[in-house]
Write a structure and sequence with these properties.
about 100 residues; mainly alpha; about 0% strand
Length: about 100
């Protein structure tokens, strides 16, 4: 039972890492739109988000591929959930723009 609990905790940790990664990406896009040097925002954010997520994967896995896989599964699930939550207004705006006959 402790192995199942470890896999569940790895999946939860992966979901948390996914929220950090994709939430950070969302924040970066919103911030970079008004920035004077958006390329620096994107590059700096990418480096920071990748460092956090890869370090998290390394520590959560503990050298076991099963935990790494569970962590990755949680990460992907978080991505799908965030896209559904944040992406809904984007799809609605795209539909309105299509009805109006111009790009969003």
């Amino acid at each position: 039972m402790s192995e199942a609990l470890a896999l569940l905790l790895a999946a939860v940790a992966g979901a948390a890492l996914g929220v950090v990664f994709f939430g950070g990406l969302w924040w970066t896009v919103r911030k970079a739109v008004t920035a004077r040097q958006p390329a620096l925002w994107f590059f700096g954010s990418l480096l920071l988000r990748m460092a956090v997520v890869l370090s998290g994967f390394y520590f959560v896995s503990g050298g076991q591929w099963q935990r790494l896989l569970a962590c990755l599964l949680g990460f992907v699930i978080a991505r799908f959930l965030l896209v559904r939550m944040v992406g809904l207004p984007l799809r609605q705006n795209a539909l309105r723009a299509k009805e109006a006959g111009h790009a969003p």
